[in-house]
Design brief:
Layout lengths: L2 H23 L13 E5 L4 E4 L4 E2 L10 H13 L4 E8 L1 H4 L7 H15 L7 E7 L9 E2 L2 E6 L12 H7 L9 E4 L11 H16 L4 E7 L6 H21 L7 E7 L10 H7 L1 E7 L1
Parallel strand pairs: 4-5, 9-10
Antiparallel strand pairs: 1-2, 3-6, 4-7, 8-11, 9-11
Helix pairs in contact: 2-4
Length: 289
């Protein structure tokens, strides 16, 4: 092979590398794929709750399944803070208004979120719906974020808001198996506080699981932020294991119980206050058919 050919091949390789670096890595002059920013639902000094950007398809009011985990945390927060209010504003573009038969697409989108939060135990009086036309609304892959949230802490005066872990436990209400139940724990304890409503949920869930062998119960264990992360994860695992042991005594198969220990990673209330730490020491039970 001649030297001229070798130099030509080397130059071709170098030129190809430069083009790859400039176009694909630096993306100079190359259009980037459009992305939708996540939507902030709530935020504290050391925590925030976000929804993924793609929440609704164009002209549609059906909420994307990817929003469900974050909304479940938002509902848990509202249950633990019955004095707080959440305003949900649904946005829509003018082009969507003429392409759908829904009278107010923005309010319908906000209503879809509110309906899900109420299904998980948020109080209707805590939720306020708004609608806003936004002709600058962004779309990516024919989806849009289209939601704005505003949390007003302590907006509703309460004569007897929960201030002890026992009161938090007593505030839990069993209405349906498909509404998650929060089990609360005293500081440093792996034994949850039993109430008539928590026991109704546990026994009803066990009966459902025995009758439906393919159904699952997700037990997600949380702690406050006190102490080391490793200790919190160990405590979360011990609490989830204790709940699992209770279900096993009721005839549930171990394979039907999925345990997740989150430790202090997913608070539903600020850990800077004693009340917030009380609310965060919990195990969430969610039935999956």
């Amino acid at each position: 092979m001649s030297k001229a050919l070798l130099w030509w091949l080397l130059g071709f390789w170098v030129s190809g590398s430069v083009v790859t670096h400039v176009v694909y890595i630096k993306r100079i002059g190359w259009p980037e794929t459009a992305r939708l920013a996540p939507v902030q639902v709530m935020k504290g000094p050391r925590w925030q709750l976000l929804l993924p950007g793609a929440l609704f398809a164009r002209n549609d009011l059906v909420l994307a399944p990817s929003a469900v985990p974050s909304l479940a945390r938002a509902a848990a927060y509202l249950r633990a803070h019955p004095g707080d209010e959440l305003t949900i504003t649904g946005a829509y573009a003018g082009s969507e208004a003429v392409a759908t038969i829904v009278p107010d697409l923005g309010r319908a989108r906000a209503g879809a979120v509110a309906a899900y939060l109420q299904k998980l135990g948020a109080l209707p009086r805590q939720l306020h719906l708004r609608s806003r036309r936004d002709d600058a609304l962004r779309f990516a892959d024919d989806s849009t974020n289209a939601l704005i949230f505003s949390l007003d802490p302590g907006a509703l005066p309460l004569a007897a808001a929960p201030v002890t872990v026992q009161q938090l436990a007593n505030a839990q209400r069993y209405s349906t198996l498909w509404r998650p139940m929060e089990l609360y724990f005293p500081l440093g304890s792996i034994h949850y506080l039993h109430t008539p409503h928590t026991e109704r949920f546990v026994t009803a869930a066990a009966a459902y699981l025995r009758a439906h062998p393919k159904a699952l119960l997700l037990t997600t264990a949380h702690t406050d932020s006190l102490g080391l992360m490793a200790w919190n994860l160990d405590m979360a695992l011990a609490r989830a294991t204790e709940v699992k042991a209770r279900l096993l005594t009721l005839g549930v198969r171990a394979a039907q119980i999925q345990m997740v220990q989150r430790g202090a990673a997913s608070p539903i209330a600020p850990n800077r206050t004693p009340a917030g730490r009380l609310a965060n020491r919990r195990v969430s039970l969610a039935l999956r058919p």
